Amino acid sequence: MGVPTIEFPDLKSIPPIDQVGVEERAARFQTRSIKAETKMSALRLAVTMLDVTTLEGADSVGKVRQMCAKAMRPLPEDPSVGPAAAVCVYPSLVRVAAEELAGSGVKVASVATAFPSGQARMKERLAEIRYAVAEGADEIDMVISRGKFLSGQYRAVFEEIVRCKEACGKAHLKVILETGELRTYDNVRIASELAMGAGADFIKTSTGKVQPAATLPVTLVMLEAIQDYVDRTGRKVGMKPAGGVSTAKLALQYLVMVKETLGDAWLSNEWFRFGASSLTNDLLMQIRKQQSGRYQSGDYFSKD
Length: 304
What we know:
8 strands, about 10% strand, alpha/beta, TIM Barrel, eight-stranded parallel beta sheet, 11 helices
């Protein structure tokens, strides 16, 4: 990822977002046709970009173990498919995931900082990060304080992200903007700049708990913010749309958008992820369709 230079961004220099233009460009990615050979490669690539996620009150040790097995071998009969990029769980289940995934190359990600609301004192938010890292988390997905952001306390949000990055130690930090609560594309762009300037390794759209979650236009705004940031600083930052990406067809549209906006260098799980609990099975169904010429029953795959 490179060592970030922590610097509060020059927000006055950020150009206003052309809403019509962004939405028209995003809509064009939905019209791309993909040849069969390319489609199969893209489906396989998308599987390797999955943060296989469970973030429910009913999460259990057994469920996390099952998800870890699926992340390591998404199609048990075809070891060429996968593995996924990471398994994302609550801090209390990080140790279980770390034990199951040891030596597999699949990362352990954990939400933290009072996910999904972010409504806790900074002391508790930082303690949760340190706990998750100590339990074995390779990556931390934090939420920003949307209330502070929407009231114009940009420097306070920036400083919170800086402190969270410091608390991560060697773990990578994904900063969740919760774009559905930010209201405008201009706010999404400003929040992206704050997160990257504060040292984020990834910027992420959503918790998946608020609607709308990830959308193509919002993700395009964030991708363009990344491109401008890289041009300005030379440091690459990853992107993670989360929530709302539930079909293989839509996932492929995201990959086309990434390729055409940031280039082939971002087409790896080091720089792009899908945060999805329901996308996995649709990708696997489409891969089996490409292999066999017929759809596999959804009952063939485990329900996570």
